[in-house]
Design brief:
The structure holds two protein chains of two kinds.
Chain A: H1 11-21, H2 31-43, H3 50-56, H4 60-73, H5 78-87, H6 104-107, H7 119-122, H8 149-161, H9 166-169, H10 172-187, H11 191-204, H12 211-224, H13 228-241, H14 248-256
Helix pairs in contact in A: 3-10, 4-5, 8-10, 10-11, 10-12, 11-12, 12-13, 13-14
Chain B: H1 6-12, H2 15-42, H3 47-63, H4 73-95, H5 117-131, H6 135-146, H7 151-158, H8 162-190
Helix pairs in contact in B: 2-3, 2-4, 3-4, 6-8, 7-8
Classes of the chains: A mainly alpha, B mainly alpha.
Chain lengths: 257, 192
């Protein structure tokens, strides 16, 4: 569809009106978003209980990715809003449910966050230029979320030290924390520990909102631990229940091997 | 100097340290939230993506807070917003091409009935013009022409040399003028 604006008398006037139109951007952040920003410190694992700190080692962005995955595949309506509240540490985000679908494809193929940020960008101490020369612009920059085995290993160690406490069990946050631990163990190549944590999750949350994610992690853990037949059987069940999951293509590939 | 990760820092921090940390965080959100929101918008985020993007920027900031020197928060946030916006642009570029016709607007960009139609239309056209610029040029143009910052301030904000800023600003203004001329010609051709 084509719209036309009022013709202007000169290029200069047109340029001026275009620049002036940017004043429309000068609006305050919506309250719900501001609340989310305030809660980001907690969501990043910086402030909170020991269990939250341990869970945060696998990353707040992973947690955000998890929420998006759920919104895209499993949880709709109030349940999805509830999970967003977990990210915001109990604060009502007030964000529309449709918003959670925005980055679903980006997180559909694994545990990487929807947006990757180069270490140079987020490392103030490095003082590295963030706006690079055009020719040197690095589209494949490494993500902000550390991928090093040492960090993941430390995470798994921290996770294995703790058991589910009452607070974990009582809330969706506990679900997220437990799955974060399982994911961290998996990333540290400790599939046995990941399977233990997933069993803990299933026992603690028999009707958990994140069970599909737990199922997907279990498939990965089984596959990594060499139990390929069990992984394939579970993958087939997952696909039967969630045929439109973003993980579907990945699991189909697993089944076709 | 070894840099403590934020969770390690806080795990060892006394209660008063945590309180100070939280106080600093509230001040950052209070002072910078509107700037980040506006910067993301001007760097090309669609309205539908703004809330997610803003949340991502502040999550990164939260994780790196112990490494950001007091006073450097806005710079850090802008640089992070730049990366988020760049990633978003790449995703959108894969999904659709930017149309040549600067007058053509998608239905979701058209002004609502209760809006200032002229300004909204111009804002959408400005976005289209900025979308045609490389992100490095767009960032400098936004900071200079829309945020009205000096070149020295832009150099500090973007972590680039003043000479580079000047060069990029010159190229950005040339690109802007070229597109304005094109748009002007289109409007004249189509008539009132």
């Amino acid at each position: 569809m084509t719209e036309r604006s009022r013709p202007v008398s000169s290029q200069a006037e047109l340029a001026q009106s275009l620049i002036a139109s940017a004043r429309l951007d000068e609006q305050p952040v919506p309250d719900a978003v501001r609340h989310g920003m305030l809660a980001a410190l907690g969501a990043a694992g910086a402030i909170g209980s020991a269990s939250v700190v341990a869970g945060a080692a696998s990353g707040a962005l992973h947690r955000l990715a998890l929420v998006k995955w759920l919104a895209a595949t499993v949880i709709v309506g109030t349940a999805g809003a509830g999970v967003y509240a977990v990210v915001n540490h109990g604060q009502s985000s007030g964000l529309p449910a449709s918003r959670t679908n925005e980055g679903a494809p980006a997180v559909g193929h694994g545990q990487e966050p929807p947006v990757t940020l180069p270490a140079a960008t987020v490392d103030e101490a490095s003082a590295a230029p963030v706006l690079p020369a055009d020719e040197a612009h690095n589209d494949d920059a490494s993500p902000a979320e550390p991928r090093g085995q040492s960090r993941r290993g430390a995470t798994a160690g921290t996770a294995s030290a703790g058991k589910l406490d009452a607070a974990d069990v009582s809330s969706l946050e506990g679900e997220v924390t437990t799955l974060d631990r399982a994911r961290a163990a998996l990333a540290a190549s400790d599939a046995t520990r990941a399977l233990e944590l997933l069993t803990q999750y299933e026992q603690a949350f028999p009707k958990g909102a994140l069970r599909p994610e737990a199922m997907y992690l279990r498939i990965q853990a089984l596959s990594k631990s060499g139990q390929r037949d069990a992984a394939r059987e579970l993958a087939a069940r997952f696909l039967a229940k969630h045929p439109s999951s973003p993980h579907a293509a990945q699991l189909q590939a697993l089944l076709s091997r | 100097m070894a840099t403590l990760m934020i969770d390690q820092f806080l795990a060892a921090a006394p209660a008063e340290g945590r309180a100070a940390y939280e106080k600093r965080w509230r001040a950052i959100v209070q002072e910078q939230a509107d700037f980040v929101w506006r910067a993301l918008r001007r760097l090309g985020l669609l309205d539908a993506d703004l809330a997610d993007a803003a949340q991502q920027v502040f999550l990164v900031m939260a994780r790196k807070l112990s490494q950001v020197k007091p006073g450097a928060e806005r710079k850090f946030l802008f640089q992070t917003a730049f990366r988020v916006a760049s990633d978003s642009r790449r995703t959108r570029r894969r999904q659709r091409e930017v149309p040549d016709d600067l007058l053509a607007l998608h239905t979701d960009e058209r002004p609502g009935p209760d809006q200032d139609l002229e300004a909204r239309l111009r804002r959408a056209q400005l976005d289209r013009i900025l979308d045609l610029m490389p992100m490095e040029l767009r960032a400098v143009f936004v900071l200079s022409e829309l945020e009205e910052m000096t070149m020295a301030e832009i150099a500090a904000m973007t972590g680039t040399r003043p000479g580079t800023v000047a060069s990029r600003l010159r190229r950005a203004r040339a690109a802007f003028s070229e597109q304005v001329a094109r748009l002007h010609a289109q409007e004249r051709q189509k008539g009132p």
